[in-house]
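A further point concerns the way the authors explain their paired sequence and structure data. The central task, working out the structure tokens from the amino acid sequence alone, is never made concrete. I therefore recommend that a typical entry be quoted early in the introduction. An entry of this sort, consisting of the sequence and the corresponding backbone structure tokens, reads as follows:
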Amino acid sequence: MEQILFWSCWLASLGITALLLFWSLPLSPFTHPGITPNEAVIIFLLVMVMRWLALAVVLMQVAIIWGRRLNLATRWIVGLTIVVVALHFLLGIVNLGVLNVWMSIDHTKTRANNAVYAGIYFSLPTLLLLFTASLMRAR
């Protein structure tokens, strides 16, 4: 059951990341000069929250499974899970800040700046997904 929950949330998070990438194709740096973001990009925020919630479940599963694998006491597994979720929350806040800077309307931004912001925005959750998958496969 743990495997089903892990992989279903993992695939949901990967799919949501792909959906966000598809939705951001009309924006800079994917097209030049790209459309100007408006109020409609608020949907990015809601979908991003769903992605980070799925990632939270994935990270909690990995922390619990690895805590059991290392024969940790229950209180240490709970503590490890809390630390993992807190670090996940910080990465989510960083990702939200990067999205805000990327989508903000500033006429001094270049395509290269937007490429860096988009790269950070998509690489953070993707690296987390790769990390958790490698930990789960190493079980």
Residues 2 and 61 are 7 Å apart (CA to CA). The chain is about 75% helix and 0% strand. Residues 2-137 form one domain.
